[in-house]
C-alpha cells in the first residue's frame, strides 16, 4: 500500500518515487562513474577535477543520492565557506556533483545507476575576472629582473601568445616543423582538445630560435628548466615585479595582455583565439577586457568622427520654396 501511495504521489508530481534500486545508489558510486568517464574522455584537467571530486567525496560521498537535496547542498556550501573556500571553488565542486547527478538522471551511467530526479544546484556569485594588464614597458622591465634565461623565455612566449601556462610548460619539439616554421599543436595536448597551428614569425620565431640553441639532449620540452619541466617561481616573480615597480601583477595578467594586444592589432576574434587557445567566445571575452584606456580611445575616436561630419544643413523649410522652385 505504501508503495502504491508513493507511485500516486509521483504521478501527481508531489514527490518522486524512490524504488528499491535507487535507495542503494550513493554519491560515491556516481562520482566513481563520473571519474571513469573523465578518464575515457582523456580530460585535460583531470588532475584538478580529481582534486575537487575528493572534496565532494569526503563531504557527501557516503550519502544516498536520493537523500541529497537543496538542504544538503546548502549545508555543504556553508561548510565550505567556513573553511575559507572561494565561491568559484565551491561552484567548480558543485558543478561536478551536478554533472554526476545529471548523467545519472539521463541514464548515461546505465540502468544500475539511474536516478529519477535531481535537486537544483544554484551557482554562487563569483568575483569579477581579474583585470590586470601589462604595458610593453612594464613587461620588459619585469623580464629584465627575472634573472634566469629559461624563465625569461617562458614569460616572453606567454606575453606574445597568451597560451595557458600549463600548455606552454608542456610544449615539446614533436609538433615543430622546421621546414615550414610552424608549430602544429595536436588536440590531445590542448586543454580544449582542439588542434591548432601557430606560424613562427617575428618574435615567435626569435624565441623558438633561442630555445633551439638551448635545447638539452634527452629533453623534448621546448620551455624547460635545466632539462626538467618548468615549475612555479612565485618568489622570483614577486621580486622581479617589485624591482620593476609593478607590485601586485600576476603571471596570468600576461594572458589578458596578449589577448588585448592581438585584438587591438586588428586581428579577428577567431584569429586571436587560434593562438591563445580559447575555445568559446564567452571564455575569450573574459580576457578581452575593456579598460579605461580603451574607453578613452573610443571617446576620442567618436569625437573625431563627429567633428568631421558635415555641419551644413540641406533641409529646406516647408515655408520657404527651394531655389529651383523660386518664383522669378
List keywords for this structure.
328 residues; DNA polymerase, domain 1; hpI Integrase, Chain A; 15 helices
**Biggest sheet layout:** 3 strands, antiparallel
* Cα gyration radius (Å): 29 Å
**Whole-number mean pLDDT:** 81
- How many domains, as an integer? 2
SSE sequence, one letter per element: HHHHHHHHHEEEHEEHHHHH
The spatial strand order of the largest sheet comes to 1-2-3
Are there runs of 5+ residues with pLDDT below 50, and where? 322-328
Q: Going by CATH, what is the homologous superfamily of the largest domain?
A: Intergrase catalytic core
Would you tell me the structural class of the helices and strands? mainly alpha
CATH fold call of the largest domain: hpI Integrase, Chain A
Helix content: 40-55%
The CATH architecture of the largest domain is: Orthogonal Bundle
CATH class term of the largest domain: Mainly Alpha
Shape by Cα distribution? globular
Beta-strand proportion = under 5%
- According to DSSP, the number of beta strands is 5
Amino acid at each position: 500500500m505504501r508503495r502504491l501511495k508513493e507511485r500516486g504521489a509521483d504521478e501527481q508530481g508531489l514527490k518522486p518515487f524512490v524504488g528499491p534500486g535507487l535507495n542503494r545508489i550513493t554519491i560515491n558510486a556516481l562520482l566513481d562513474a563520473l571519474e571513469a568517464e573523465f578518464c575515457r574522455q582523456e580530460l585535460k584537467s583531470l588532475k584538478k577535477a580529481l582534486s575537487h571530486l575528493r572534496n565532494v567525496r569526503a563531504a557527501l560521498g557516503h550519502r544516498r543520492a536520493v537523500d541529497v537535496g537543496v538542504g544538503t547542498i546548502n549545508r555543504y556550501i556553508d561548510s565550505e565557506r567556513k573553511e575559507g573556500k572561494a565561491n568559484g571553488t565551491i561552484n567548480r565542486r558543485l558543478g561536478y556533483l551536478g554533472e554526476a547527478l545529471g548523467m545519472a538522471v539521463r541514464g548515461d551511467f546505465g540502468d544500475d545507476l539511474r536516478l529519477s530526479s535531481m535537486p537544483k544546484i544554484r551557482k554562487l556569485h563569483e568575483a569579477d575576472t581579474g583585470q590586470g594588464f601589462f604595458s610593453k614597458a612594464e613587461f620588459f622591465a619585469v623580464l629584465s629582473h627575472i634573472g634566469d634565461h629559461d624563465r625569461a623565455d617562458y614569460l616572453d612566449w606567454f606575453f606574445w601568445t597568451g597560451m595557458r601556462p600549463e600548455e606552454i610548460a608542456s610544449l615539446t619539439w614533436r609538433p615543430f616543423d622546421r621546414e615550414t616554421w610552424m608549430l602544429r599543436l595536436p588536440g590531445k595536448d590542448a586543454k580544449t582538445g582542439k588542434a591548432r597551428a601557430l606560424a613562427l614569425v617575428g618574435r615567435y620565431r626569435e624565441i623558438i630560435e633561442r630555445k633551439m640553441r638551448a635545447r638539452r639532449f634527452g629533453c623534448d620540452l621546448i620551455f624547460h628548466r635545466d632539462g626538467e619541466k618548468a615549475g612555479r617561481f612565485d618568489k622570483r616573480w614577486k621580486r622581479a615585479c617589485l624591482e620593476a615597480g609593478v607590485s601586485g601583477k600576476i603571471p596570468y595578467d600576461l594572458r589578458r595582455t596578449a589577448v588585448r594586444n592581438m585584438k587591438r592589432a586588428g586581428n579577428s576574434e577567431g584569429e586571436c583565439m587560434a593562438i591563445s587557445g580559447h575555445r568559446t567566445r564567452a571564455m575569450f571575452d573574459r580576457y578581452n577586457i575593456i579598460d579605461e584606456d580603451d574607453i578613452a580611445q573610443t571617446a576620442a575616436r567618436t569625437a573625431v568622427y563627429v567633428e568631421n561630419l558635415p555641419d551644413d544643413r540641406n533641409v529646406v523649410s516647408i515655408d520657404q520654396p527651394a531655389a529651383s522652385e523660386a518664383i522669378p
